[in-house]
Design goal:
Length: about 525
Amino acid sequence: MNWFGDEVTDAATQAILYGTSTVIQIIIQVATMMIISRSLGPANYGVYTLALLPSTILTIFSDPGITSSMLRYISIARARKELKGVARAYRVSILFLTLINTLILAVIALFPEELGVQLAQRSGLHELVLATAPYPLATAIYGAVLTYYVGMEKAGVRSMLQVLAPLLRLVLVSIVLLLGLSVKGVVVAHVATYIVMAVVSLLISFKELKGLNSDGSIFKVSEFLTLAFSIYLAGIAGAIVGRIISFLIAYTTSNLGETGNYMVGNYNAASAFLGAIASVLGSLATPLTPLMAKRLNNGGLKETSNLVLNVLLTLTIPVTVYVVLFADSIIYSVYGRNYSMAPLFFAYMSISLLAWPLQTVYGSIYWVYNDKKPLAGYGLALMATGTVFSIVLSGIMGLQGIALAQGFYPLLSSMVLAYYGYFKHGVKPSISKASILLALSLITGVFSKYIVGWIQFYIIQALLGFILYLVLFTLCSGFFNIIGEIELGFLDLLARRIPLIGPVLRLLLKLYRRSARRLESRLRNTAC
């Protein structure tokens, strides 16, 4: 088949746009985190994150699979050129999200003190919690609009809206801190950002659909909600485990006073930065569901899935190893030495990045096929492993145990997705290739860390270590020739379209091929 035809090329182009905008978003978010964390200090930063906790926990109910179901229906309808179905799916989604999240807003507004005591394990947070009441509604609407543009494959508009949110937040946070409003001002700025973005993005998207009648659409609300609920049952497991972890963090530190707030600040700082890395990786796979919908219509879904899965593993494994080994220099570069506990938390949590390629590729396959069984199995596995690991390890190791659980349970539960995907759909990663990649990453990563460990400036240590690690890893992987030609071709395609980073990637690919050719030359000489 033609691996790099218009569909794959378009998806790769969108991935680069999403990746570039996400990198810009992360840079702005990191700058914002640095300003907030350094201005508030670990203790007040802990209060800030605890104040957001009740509304964050209640977001478990804010989107019962509606946005994910919408992405599937919009992608399928657009692939079939049924624009009425697109309009219908989007409008129904916004309606249900608004109704659900208005109820959540009312709950927060009526019971702020009780939510602070029960969900954040802190009293006296009622004013801060009350300020977060519109947060679930605003983020649900904003997220739905971004997902709509993913399904419509309008990467430019989506990227613009994606970057505007953190930029607005940076401006608002800077203003309130200059005014001396401290924790309360930062919370209000955070919530106000998403209110503004929800309103603006909703107006833009509805203007596009103006005049497009959806009455004649073949879209059925009952089927849409059935799929949404099925996805929600799988997704709610991870959300519940996440909230259990949040509760355990608050509970474990509830009797420690300022020290407890300090520990929470360290933990949430590490978690926030890991989220930033995960969002960069996730942005590269954003166009995957629309691509799968096209492949379902045109054929080649299995082959495309295998290609994307192996490429994502090739990218994710070395990135994960670097993040784990250089956790201290990364965290200290962003937050400073005051966050002395954050690097260890960050290293443990980062193990979960290895699960991302499995979740992304198999999840897209099951959504496109409307296959509910593996999603349910994955949800059960996520619930079981996450709950058991977090509760048991928190009792043994405290916050370190919770971080370790957060690193391992997503990886273990993702095996359910991989097992089902292999036997039913024939999509499987190359275990031998992944194992070699992991071994080479660890060896070159440890060596790189040892070489640059003497450098006292953490940001320089992180950057030089990353460069050295990339070069050594590329040479070693080329020597063993573990990346196939199809994967190399896909990476070449990405490199040609990535601004700034593209030339670096092309240089690494050239280095890889030279190393591989030397191996082939030695083998030929040995054979002769």
